[in-house]
Amino acid sequence: MIHYRTITGPLGDVLLRAEAGCLTGAFFAGQKYHPGVFADAAAPDTDAARLFDAATHELQEYFAGVRQRFTVPLAPVGSRFQQDVWRALLAIPFGETTTYGALAARLGLPGGHARAVGGAVGRNPISVIVPCHRVLGSQGALTGYAGGVPRKLALLRLEGIGIAMAGAHDTLPIAA
Q1: Which residues form the Methylated-DNA-[protein]-cysteine S-methyltransferase DNA binding domain (predicted)?
Q2: Which residues contact 132 (CB under 8 A, 6 or more apart)?
Q3: Which end of the chain is more exposed for a tag (fewer CB within 10 A), N or C?
Q4: What radius of gyration do the chain's Cα atoms show?
């Protein structure tokens, strides 16, 4: 059975999804590819409730600046290629970035596969915990993010990565 819980975070509500004892989704409200569930569909069983509590605690610690790695069990659902890309995202350390092209090269893909990698990154179903926000365009350009570029910028700044974005109104600060 699939369980859902919505939590409130400093960058807006996050819908958590769990199945079989693993987190399968973490979606910002309004995020591209959001599963469309807006409330708890059913009361979670004890295992799902514990998983949601742990994920919520770890996300709170991350946003407070005291957690750099997540330990909740993950099981994102996607194609084999997407799974490979999402595993590669987990290897990007806190406070560091890479580019889509470099990620493609790390996966052993021939030149020109940055766009395919970008498509898989964009469909990452576990925002923040699987750190797709750490992937930038060529030459470090701040590019799209399923949760919105202002959120991506806020996450990068939280990790101490200084990136400029045009227009002061484009920022989404993390609440204290």
Answers
A1: 81-161
A2: 89, 121, 122, 124, 145, 146
A3: C
A4: 16
